Amino acid sequence: MPYAGENAPAAPNATWPTGRRFLFLQGPLSPLFRLIGARLEAAGHEVRRINFCLGDRLCWSGPNTLSFRGKPGEWAGFVAAFLDENAITDLVVHGDRRFYHRVAIDAANAKGIGVIACELGYLRPGWMTVERGGFSTLSHFPDDPSKIREIAATAGPVDLTPMFPGSFVLEAWQDVSYHLANLAGRPFYPFYRRHTPLHPLNDYAAWLMRLSGSRRRRKRAQATERDLLSHGRPFFVVPLQIDGDYQLTAHSPYASMRAALEDIVSSFSRSARNDARLAVKSHPNDNGITNWAKVVAELADRYSLAGRLVFVDGGRLGALLERAAGLVTVNSTAGLEALRVGCSVKPLVPALYDIPGMTHQGDLDSFWNAPEKPDGELIKAFMAAVAATLQARGSIHNRKGLSVAVEEMARRILSDDLNEPGGFVDTPPRLERARKVGVRL
Question: CDD domains this protein is in (predicted)?
Fold first, then answer.
C-alpha cells in the first residue's frame, strides 16, 4: 500500500458533518500547520494531514494524520482517491509548486475543491501569505490600478509597521532538524521526493564554508558599495535569486539564475549608456555553491564591461536602492522593496507587483535609458490592498510571531470571504502574460 497509518483514510460516508473538511499537506519547517489545524478543529471543522517524510511527522503526527510512502508516480491516484473518500472541501499547502502540492492542486481543481496556498509574506518580515488558488503568476490578485485603489479605499488604513524580526538561530534549527530527520528516516520513506534541489549535507557544508569567510566578504562588499555611491555615474542593481527557488524554476522561463543574468547583462551591454554601471547583488541566503564573483567576471570579460559590471557579495540592498537608477529582477520580492523607496523596477516576468504605474512597462532594452518612475500613491494603495486581502500578520521565524500567525491565518482560512474585498478575480490576470514570455504553466 502506498500509505501507512498514523491513520488510514476514512471510508466513504453519506452523512459527513456539515462543517468543512481540510486536508493539509507539507507546511513550513515549523509547527505552524499543526497549530492552525488545531484551531480549525476547535472551530468545529475536520482536519486531515498527509506526511511524506520523517521531518513532516516531527512537525505534525497523531490522530487524523497518515504517511504516504509510495512512489511519486503513485501520488496522483492516491490523492485523488483520498479527496473523494474523505469528502475534502479545502486543500491547504505551503508553496503551490512543490511536486506533491502541484499534483494535489490539479486533483483538487478538477473536483471543485478549494485550494488555500500559504507562504512567507509578500510584505515580509512580519507577514504570512494566505491566498486562494496560487501565488505569483498564478495569483488571482487584480493587476488593474483602478481596482487596486478601490480595494485600498475599502480596506482603509493598514498598519505596515515591521514586526517579528526573524531569529537566525531558530530558522537554522528548524531547517537542520527537519532535513537531518529526513536523512535518518529515509528507510521508512524510501521514495520521498524532496522539494529542495541540493542534498542537505552538501548545502550545510557549503554554508559552513561561506560563513567562515563572512568578515572578508563584508569588508569587500562595503568597499564596493562606497565605490558605487561615491561616484555620480548612474548604476542599476540586479538582486540574485536562489537557484531552485520556485519563483525562478516554476514561475519564470529560466532554468537557472545564471541564464537570467546572461540575458540582463547582454541587454545592458547593447543598450545602456556608456557611463552606466550594473551591480549584481548576492542573495542573503546564498550558500556559495555557485561562484558568482567568477560568473560576473566572466560576463564582464565576454561583454567588454570591465569596470562597469560589478559584484556585491553582501552588504545592504536598501543603501543601493536609495541611489540606484533602477532595479532589474526576474520576479523577486526585492522589486517590491525597491518600489517602496521610489526606485524604478523592471521585472522580467509579471510578478505580483508588475502593474502599470508601478513598474517599467517597456522591454528591458528600453529600461536602461528611460526607466519609468513608480507612482508613489499607487504603491501605497497596492501595499494596503495586499495587506488587507492576501496577508496575515505573523512569522514562523519568531516565537511570538508564530502565535500571531496561527491566530491570524486560521481566522483568514475560516472566513467566508478569503482575499476579499476585491483581492480575488476569477482568472489569474498575470498568467497569459507569463505564458507569452515562456513561463510553462
Answer: beta_Kdo_transferase_KpsS
pLDDT digits (tens, 9 = 90+) for 411-438: 999 988 899 999 999 999 999 999 999 9
365 and 259 share one domain = yes
Q: Which of 330, 355, 376 is a domain's end point?
A: 376
* Paired residues of 327 in beta bridges: 237, 345
Orientation of helix 145-155 relative to helix 376-389, angle to 10°: 60
Give the residue-averaged pLDDT of 12-23: 64
**Inside any domain, residue 206:** no
Are residues 48 and 114 located together in one domain of the fold?
A: yes
pLDDT number for residue 362: 97
Residue 90 lies in a domain: yes
Q: Which helix (H) or strand (E) holds 142?
A: none
Domain match, 273 and 370 both: yes
Give residue-wise pLDDT tens across range 122-167: 998 899 999 999 999 999 999 999 999 999 999 988 899 889 998 8
Judge contact between 130 and 409, C-beta under 8 A. Answer: yes
With H, G, I as helix, E, B as strand and everything else as coil, classify residue 154.
helix
Q: Quick check: is 387 in a domain?
A: yes
**What local confidence, expressed as pLDDT, does residue 7 receive?**
41
Does residue 312 form part of some domain? yes
**388 shares its domain with 428:** yes
In this predicted model, what pLDDT tens digit does every residue of 46-68 receive, in sequence order? 999 999 999 999 999 998 999 99
222 plus 369 within the same structural domain: yes
Residue 231 pLDDT grade (very low, low, confident, very high; cuts 50, 70, 90): confident
Q: What are phi and psi of 114, to 5 degrees?
A: -65, 140
112: left (phi over 0), alpha (psi -120 to 50) or beta: left
126 contact partners, CB below 8 Å, separation of at least 6: 162, 163, 164, 165, 393, 394, 395, 401
CB contact at 8 A, 17 and 27: no
CATH number at residue 387: 3.40.50
Predicted confidence (pLDDT) per residue in 367-389, tens digit: 999 999 999 999 999 999 999 99
Do residues 248 and 397 share a domain? no
Mean of all residue pLDDT scores within the chain: 91
Q: Are residues 233 and 326 in the same domain?
A: yes
Give me the number of domains the chain comprises: 2
The answer to whether residue 15 scores a pLDDT higher than 60 is no
pTM: 0.90
Residue 46 parent element (H or E): strand 46-51
371 and 222 both lie in a single domain: yes
DSSP letters, 207-245, are HHHHHHTHHHHHHHHHHHHHHHHHSSS-EEEEE---TT-
